[in-house]
Amino acid sequence: MTSPAIQWYPGHIAKAEKALREQLKLVDVVLEVRDARIPLATEHPQVQQWVGSKDRVLVLNRLDMVSAEMRQQWSDWFNAQGTLPLFTDAQHGKGIQAVMKATQVVGAKVNQKRRDRGLLPRPVRAVVIGFPNVGKSALINRLLKRRVVESARRAGITRQLRWVRISEQIELLDAPGVLPARLDDQEAALKLAICDDIGEAAYDNQRVAAALIDLLYRLNYGQALASRYEVELEDQSGEAYLHALAAAKYQGDAERTARQLLNDFRVGNLGAIALEHPPFNESLNACKRQRGYDQSNAGD
């Protein structure tokens, strides 16, 4: 089965990127939010270039949708790359204080440099960036302890850039979700569609749902489908399973079945499932040995 054609909005994206790049010149720290289920697919390919030498806080949102074991594996992997990830469930307020503390630490460094130059301290300027629908608005609202930002699932054009004051120490730039102008990795594009992290891009629900089924079995989560729907996959493709499920549960309506399956995954009805596992490398292996993991368990 070919990958679904995902429709980008290059004109809107270019406009949003230009505005964001200009505002990034004014900030001290970047809060980059990714989806904990797909931390690599939700990495914007230009973030490193945009951030440059600025401090960055990596936030992996939706911690409730991946297992504690998988969170630990990702923590080890990112630590091996020199980055400390902060896991949050912004919807329910978990992990927010750690993000606030990390931002305040950067602010203290910024103001120490200002004092060294004979300047008065000022609030640290932070920006929250990431793909649409990864939880940026929920994170900002939790940091502010009030609802001031509406969720925006459409990339780049739903709202304007604006500054909001979190405290006397922090000012936050609320930026729309920004998609890459192009995404050559079609597997990553599928994962974005599956997790609903791609805004209002157009894709075929049945093809995306079939791809989800294939991916679940490849990652050994097939039992989650059998437990939820009581329909077994017997050496079938994801597309064949989708139609078998439609026949068994949804009067043969494959479109309704696809939408239901995608929604069940997105809200956690299939369980805590990570669609990406950390790439194995020697630095991760060394990190696991330091934590006392048995060598035989390394490798996901």
Task: Describe what this molecule looks like in 3D.
By secondary structure, the protein is an alpha/beta fold. The protein has 2 domains: 10-174, P-loop containing nucleotide triphosphate hydrolases (Rossmann fold, 3-Layer(aba) Sandwich); 186-266. It is 43% helix and 11% strand. The protein has 11 helices and 6 strands. The chain has a 6-stranded mixed β-sheet with strand order 3-2-1-4-6-5.
How would you concisely characterize the structure shown here?
By secondary structure, the chain is an alpha/beta fold.
Uncertain stretches: 152-158, 293-300
Share of helix, binned: 40-55%
Strands of the biggest beta sheet: in what spatial order?
3-2-1-4-6-5
The amount of beta strand, in percent, is 5-15%
End-to-end C-alpha gap = 26 Å
The major beta sheet can be summarized as: 6 strands, mixed
Q: Can you tell me the CATH class of the largest domain?
A: Alpha Beta
CATH superfamily of the largest domain, by name, is P-loop containing nucleotide triphosphate hydrolases
Total domains? 2
| Average pLDDT metric | 83
Q: C-alpha Rg, in Å? A: 21 Å
Order of helices and strands: HEHEHEHEHEEHHHHHH
Figure out the total of helices: 11
Q: Quick one: how many beta strands?
A: 6
What characteristic shape results from the CA principal axes?
Answer: elongated
Given helix and strand content, the structural type is: alpha/beta
What's the CATH architecture of the largest domain? 3-Layer(aba) Sandwich
Q: If you consult CATH, what is the topology of the largest domain?
A: Rossmann fold
